[in-house]
Amino acid sequence: MDLHDWPGHGLTDAELDVAYNVRGKAGEELFGHHMRRYRALSDEAVDGLPGHRGVVYDEASGEALDVWGVEAGRLRPVFVFVHGGYWRALSRADSAFMARMLHGHGVATVVPDYTLAPAATLEEIVRQVRASVAWVHRHGPGHGLDPGRIVVGGSSAGGHLTGMTMVGGWQEALGLPADVVKAAMPFSGLFDIRPLVRVYVNEWLGLDGARAARLSPELLPAPRRCPAVVAVAADDGDGFLEQSRRFQRHWGPAAELMVVPDRDHFDVVLDLADETSAVSRALLGLIRAL
């Protein structure tokens, strides 16, 4: 890959800021509305749902995850959902809105927290998310989860972190099989984060070009390419639309690009609360194919 061919190459810093400032595009009123829906829909989804709350998955950081939608005596396929928030906001409490929908289709949901930037570097955040996948593989059976049917997804920054579980080169050190992630569904993800070195997001990431390249799923080896649906909103930020299109081409025939009409960067993933939505059908299709 041409290392000078990165998303937005040739744009000014101001133009890159616009391309990646989806909160600014939405406006504060709509952004606040979406954030309230994340928490309200998540609270509604897990109310009365069987599960395990606040399980520490990483002793080094003390970070925890929630398990939802399990059933006694059965191991269910599991959707590990990694929240967004540009690596510095949101939590697992805002990110379980799909749990009831998936429970109704025989699928469990795992939602991990991770230490937010700038308290943690992006390298450390990636390590923690991979550790959450390792926890599911090692300890899943004791919590109703099938370690052989793990699907990872996430939105925005969570889409980037999903990508960092899809690539190779990290599983062996954690004692995991190369195919521990059986399928993936990133939403509005960031897969080549070199442009962020030049935008406002770097105020809390503190990246340089070399570190950004090492943390970019599109630039990392992926000897096994798991089935994936790369989802993005039709009314997303220009930077996110370009990133999703490029990553789907990079991932090749194993990936499908899904551009969701009438949705923006923040509400496209909320469609996972609705079993009739196109994204829910796509996710369930990935899981049923395992």
UniProtKB/TrEMBL annotation:
<feature type="domain" description="BD-FAE-like">
    <location>
        <begin position="76"/>
        <end position="167"/>
    </location>
</feature>
<dbReference type="InterPro" id="IPR050300">
    <property type="entry name" value="GDXG_lipolytic_enzyme"/>
</dbReference>
<dbReference type="InterPro" id="IPR049492">
    <property type="entry name" value="BD-FAE-like_dom"/>
</dbReference>
<dbReference type="InterPro" id="IPR029058">
    <property type="entry name" value="AB_hydrolase_fold"/>
</dbReference>
<keyword id="KW-0378">Hydrolase</keyword>
<dbReference type="Pfam" id="PF20434">
    <property type="entry name" value="BD-FAE"/>
</dbReference>
<protein>
    <submittedName>
        <fullName>Arylformamidase</fullName>
        <ecNumber>3.5.1.9</ecNumber>
    </submittedName>
</protein>
<dbReference type="GO" id="GO:0004061">
    <property type="term" value="F:arylformamidase activity"/>
</dbReference>
